[in-house]
Predict the 3D structure of the following.
Amino acid sequence: MAAQPFDDRDGWVWLDGEFIPHRNAKVHVLTHALHYASAVFEGERAYGGVVFKGHEHSLRLQKSAKILGFQVPASAEDIDAAKSELIKKQGFENCYLRAIAWRGSEQMGVAAKRDDVHVAISAWEWGDYFADKMKGVRLMIAPWRRPAPDTSPWNSKAAGLYMICTLSRHAANDAGFDDAIMMDWRGQIAEGTGANIFFVRDGVLHTPFPDCFLNGITRQTVIALAKARGIEVQERAIWPSELATFEEAFLTGSAAEITPIREIAGLAFKPGKMTEQLMTEFSALTRRKNAV
Ligand code: PMP
């Protein structure tokens, strides 16, 4: 049976301060965001009815909008409250949430200052991001690179930045891989198409320094968890020539959580002790009700 399309579901969407029936949450074809990617969004998960790091996600939504030159028409506290209420109304315990803010229809063209800004939040039940998550995923090297910091608003979770992510993910899937890792404009390892990346060697965690891609909330959580356990974490430039020297590798993201990697472009990795320990600790933290 085909999956239920996202625009044809029961339930509620919070749109500009009100809950409306899910199927009525529509925008016009002449919407600036649709033509010019003037939208920013968040992906979050709730565990046991509580959004993990929900307030940080609300603040990041506002920061992303500010970087694109517009303001989300709701305070972070209002967004937090709307997310909690939405989960309750939907009757979800564990779910994914998608907040989005975008420029509307008052002005069409490159200039957009007269467009009203809208904000919406939806939620749905979503299991593992990858079908084979626990076995470890297979990644290829993406055909697209993360752009240089002066060629994109890289620290905004902006819709437009996902164009090369979708193309890279499709290229990977077409070649029989689960996903791709993207190099940056210099040729250094950057991240996955929707997640950050970590490596393990001799008990030390290594992860690329986020100077042209999103410093994920899950990434920061994993670094804090590791440091609290006395594990050394090196945030630094990592070149692809180093890949063969790492023993374990994993992805981190709100959707991907911690996903072990078993192959990158022909090189094998073994989801081992460090990955397992961090997965266990991450799931304990997310399921703790006051883990905000
Ligand atoms: N990089 C990209 C491109 C992403 O889409 C995501 C998911 N939001 C991440 C990294 C991880 O960010 P977070 O841990 O905040 O979800």
Q: What stands out?
A: The first strand starts at residue 12 and ends at 15. Residues 76-90 form the longest helix (15 residues).
